[in-house]
Every structure is written in C-alpha cells, then in structure tokens.
Amino acid sequence: MALFNGMIKKRINALIEQKKSFLCVGLDPDVQKIPTLFLRMQDPITEFTKSIVNATSDVAIAYKPNFAFYEALGLKGLHALDALIHHLPKNVVTIADAKRADIGNTSRLYATAFFETWGFDAVTVPPYMGYDSIEPFISYKEKLTLILCLTSNSGAQDFEEKRLENGKRLYEAVLEKALEWNQFENVGLVVGANRAEELKRLRAMAQGLCFLIPGVGVQGGTIEESVRYGADANQQSALINIGRAVIYPDGEFSSLNDFEKTVAKKAEEYVAMMRQALEQSAV
Fold first, then answer.
1. Which of 10, 40, 172, 249 is the most exposed place for a label (fewest CB within 10 A)?
2. Which of 10, 50, 99, 266 does the annotation list as catalytic?
3. Considering the chain, what is the average pLDDT of its residues?
4. Which residues pair with residue 62 across a beta bridge?
5. Total H helices, total E strands in the chain
6. Is 73 exposed, middle or buried (0-12, 13-18, 19+ CB in 10 A)?
C-alpha cells in the first residue's frame, strides 16, 4: 500500500469521530440573500463567509464553496474565495464544488488548480467523459475525488436514472466504475439526500467509499435518512451538506455577534439531529 492510500478517508472519519458530526457547510454566497449588515462592509462576500466559518467551525467537519457563486463575481469573487480558504481552520476538509472534468490534458490542469493552486482537499467531478477525464484527479492520492452519481436535482431523471441495455441504471454503472477506480482509497460519490431508497442501496453496494450528501431541507432530504442510509457500517464516511438552511437564517441582524450566534445555533441544531440519528442507528 502506498503511503497516501486512504489518508483523506481516515482524516474525514477522524473528524466525524472527534466532533460526532457529519456537517459539511455549503458556502454559497449570494449578494441577493446575505444580510444587510454585510452589504455595508467594504468586502461583503469575504466578511459574510468568514462569519459563517467563525460560527460553525466547532461542529463542521467540512466546508464546500460552490465555485459558481465566486466566479460570477469575477476577480472580486476569486479574491473572496482566496480569503475564505486562508480563513478556514487547518483541520477541516475543504471541498471545491466545481464539477469539472475534461479530456486528460485539461483535467490535469483542473486537478493542479484545485489541489495545488487553491489547496483543496476534495473536488466534485462529472464522470461522463470516462476514466481519462477523472484519472488526473485520482492520481492525487492524498486528495478526495467526489464523482457525481445520483444528484439531488429533478433533472437526474434525464440521464442518471435511465436504464442501460443491461438493465442497470446509469448511476449504478457510475458506482461500479467508482469502485473500480478507487485503487488509492480516495474516490467518493455524490448522492442526493432526497433519494433515500437509492442512497440506502448505493451505500450497501459501496461500503468503502465516502459519500457527499446534498439535498437536505428544501430539496426534500432529511438528516435522519442521510445518517441512517448514507453513513457506512461504522457510522462514518459521510459528509452531509447543509447550505441555505444554515448560512441564511431568518431575521435582521444588528451586529456580527448577533448573526454568528444565530448561525451557530442553527448549525448546532442540525448536528444534534445527526447525533440523535447516530444513536438510533446504533440501537
């Protein structure tokens, strides 16, 4: 076994064990939604995302910036992303939600960008251009490559849920390839929380993979089912993403302290639900 095999999975599971949490905070700053408090600041996006991190770092094990929210703002957004990365605690897992993959030469540059230039621990990638588009990411043995398998959006039915000639769903074929490509124990899957029965079945087929699980809340997924069906047999290897429900709490805020207390409370409520689900699963 090579030195780095399984390192990222061990890091994730150590954080789950330490914090008794699966919480991955989605850092998707939308100028139309962030509290007025931040709009009066010189750099609203940077200050907003930093406050989210300050409020949630005790219970979060991972943070997932969605690149679209930063790239849409041009250089200002990329500067905000850079500031955020430098503000994140060193022991958490950082996920570039970028969904990039291309022909080999281009993917090599994408992998360099996310894993070396930006320094992320993980990145989301679509699998539909095949192994040569994914291999440059997987070759970073100490990093995690999260392959889109069965996503939480309604459009998943257009391709991911289609049956192949052999009778399998396309997402099942993706899972089989992910298992085949997991030679360094650094491949994971993105599976929507609102696909509870499929999540349960996919986990049974892929005990050795880390799952990133979006779709809790507005999209219909629940914490209880995400923990029960998404965690592995050791109640580990799952990252449950919560975005809007944590980072955009209701109400007006007069100070950073007021805002951060509200966000912290919301994050702690979700983690309490995760811990309760863990206890119920252990029975």
1. 40
2. 99
3. 96
4. 24, 93
5. 12, 8
6. middle
- The answer to whether residue 76 is catalytic is no
Q: Which two tokens stand for residue 147?
A: 């392959």
Contacts of 278 (CB under 8 A, 6+ apart): 20, 227, 231, 235
CB 177 within 8 A of CB 138: no
**C-alpha distances out from residue 151 to 50, 91, 113, 172, 199, Å:** 28, 27, 24, 12, 10
Number of other CB atoms surrounding residue 98 within 10 Å? 19
Give the closest residue to 231 by CA, choosing from 190, 199, 192. Answer: 199
Q: Which domains does the chain have, with CATH numbers?
A: 7-282 (3.20.20.70)
pTM of the complete model = 0.96
Nearest partner of 34 among 241, 270, 259, judged by Cα: 259
- Per-residue pLDDT of 170-221, as tens digits, reads 999 999 999 999 999 999 999 999 999 999 999 999 999 999 999 998 888 9
Contact residues for 143 (Cβ-Cβ < 8 A; gap 6+)? 8, 115, 120, 121, 122, 123, 137, 186
Residue that is written with structure tokens 């540059």 in the block:
109
